[in-house]
């Protein structure tokens, strides 16, 4: 919320746009810095876009799960056969 408030300036606008982004399946994830913040130089920047990733819809999630299982199936089958052959 703080990032939306800093960017949009008013609580009403920030709240509305945060609700809208969430309702459309967008989620924000923080990215930890690899070093302490004091190790970085500071400079002013203008934020023009937010870094977000859209959450998968149920159908997209099911398709991704199906593709992952299809990819792994030959390896699972080989591992089970090797285990039974011991």
β-sheet strand percentage = under 5%
Number of β-strand runs? 2
Distance between the termini: 57 Å
Q: Class by helix and strand content?
A: mainly alpha
Instruction: Kindly provide the radius of gyration, computed on alpha-carbon positions and rounded to a whole number of angstroms.
Output: 22 Å
Provide the succession of SSEs: HHEEH
Number of helical elements: 3
Arrangement of strands in the largest sheet = 1-2
**Main sheet, how many strands, which sense, barrel?**
2 strands, antiparallel
Give unreliable regions as ranges. Answer: none
Amount of helix: 40-55%
Mean pLDDT: 76
| Shape summary | elongated
Outline of the structure:
The chain is mostly helical and 86 residues long. It contains three helices and two strands; from the N terminus they run ααββα.
Q: What features would you highlight for this structure?
A:
86 residues; single chain; mainly alpha
Question: How is the secondary structure organized here?
Answer:
Blueprint: H1 2-8, H2 11-23, E1 26-27, E2 53-54, H3 58-84
Antiparallel strand pairs: 1-2
Helix pairs in contact: 1-2
């Amino acid at each position: 919320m703080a990032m939306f408030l800093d960017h949009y300036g008013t609580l009403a606008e920030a709240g509305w746009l945060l609700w809208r982004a969430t309702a459309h399946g967008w989620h924000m994830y923080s990215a930890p810095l690899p070093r302490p913040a004091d190790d970085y130089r500071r400079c002013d920047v203008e934020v023009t876009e937010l870094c977000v990733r859209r959450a998968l819809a149920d159908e997209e999630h099911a398709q991704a799960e199906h593709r992952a299982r299809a990819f792994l199936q030959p390896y699972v089958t080989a591992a089970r056969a090797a285990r039974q052959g011991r």
